Amino acid sequence: MRIGVLEDATGVSRRLLRYYEEQGLLRPARLANGYRDYSEADVATVRRIRRLLAAGLPTAVINRILDCFHDGDGGTDTGNDDGDGLMTSSGCAGLTTRLRRERARIAEEIERLQASDQALESLLAMPARISRAPG
DNA sequence: CTTCTGACA
DNA sequence: TGTCAGCA
């Protein structure tokens, strides 16, 4: 399918679709006229990319993770669900472990930010008598 | 009309 | 990301 069809199927703009390709996330074939030729699998891939991006992962990381999704769509396409799950297959060992570590890292970061937030809150609760130096 | 690449806001 | 240009 051409880019316009994929756009309608995924809701992702052509601009973004081309950008994903530029980032190595998509590798559509080319028609004789130079038009990109996407496969049905690319529809699912784009959805996965959106999810991974929403998770805050950089395209470089998504690139690797994408290979860990070995289409497990055994269902009829009646459902519009993304139908994606992490498939532990070819050389994807340790992926979930790394992802869990990332979550732990984020959790720690949140704690630090909360500490800063509380410190700032108490600071603002103090009587505001810090005046400007007489000029 | 649809897509392509490159570039600018 | 949107959008415009200039082609094919």
From TrEMBL:
Ranges where the HTH merR-type domain occurs: 1-68
Positions of the UniProt region annotated as Disordered: 71-91
Keyword Zinc-finger: no
Transmembrane segments: none
SUPFAM superfamilies (alphabetical): Putative DNA-binding domain
Pfam families: MerR_1
Name this polypeptide is given: HTH merR-type domain-containing protein
Coiled-coil annotated spans: none
Top-rank taxon, per record: Bacteria
Keywords annotated in UniProt: DNA-binding
